Amino acid sequence: MALKPAVLALAMGALMTSATHAAPDQPLFAVIYRPGPAWKAGLPMAQQDLGAHAGYIARLAVEGRVVAGGGWVGLDGGMALLRCADADEAARLLAADPAITTGVFEADVRRWSPRFGVDADLVPKPATPSPRLQP
């Protein structure tokens, strides 16, 4: 189900008023979404009942909790990177996702620690420079 831009903007504006922002130094968690029991077989993701999920993810993005996310290309499901204080908070956010509560998606959440190929927006730089090895 596609949301009309005006409806999405209105929903995001209402949700922004009560946003609590994630700290940029909080750990990252990867959420891997896959079709759940309420997934309508044979229909593409764009035709699944994901309007409430889209609004929920949009609110989390405004709060700084969703760093990145989206659907797989050519496959059902997707992934989101969450910034949370701990694993319990990540689990609570996932449990409150309308796509999970309605059974459209099932998901796993894992703490993720990127090691290379990242920018400052994903992993904050240390406050002080690391000492360099002398040749």
Order of helices and strands: HEHEEHHE
Strand order of the largest sheet: 2-3-1-4
Q: What overall geometry do the principal axes of the alpha carbons give? A: globular
Mean pLDDT: 80
Roughly what fraction of the amino acids lie in strands? 15-25%
* Uncertain regions spanning at least 5 consecutive residues: 1-19
The oligomeric state is single chain
Count the DSSP helices.
4
- The helicity comes to 25-40%
Distance between the termini: 60 Å
Explain what you see:
The chain is α+β, with helices and mostly antiparallel strands and 135 residues long. Helices cover 27% and strands 21% of the residues. The protein has four helices and four strands. A four-stranded antiparallel sheet has the order 2-3-1-4. The protein is globular and about 40 Å long. The termini are far apart.
Pick out its properties.
135 residues, alpha+beta, four-stranded antiparallel sheet
Compose a concise summary of this entry.
By secondary structure, the chain is an alpha+beta fold.
Blueprint of the fold:
Elements (H helix, E strand, L loop, with lengths): L4 H12 L11 E8 L15 H12 L3 E6 L6 E6 L3 H9 L2 H4 L3 E8 L23
Antiparallel strand pairs: 1-3, 1-4, 2-3
Helix pairs in contact: 1-2
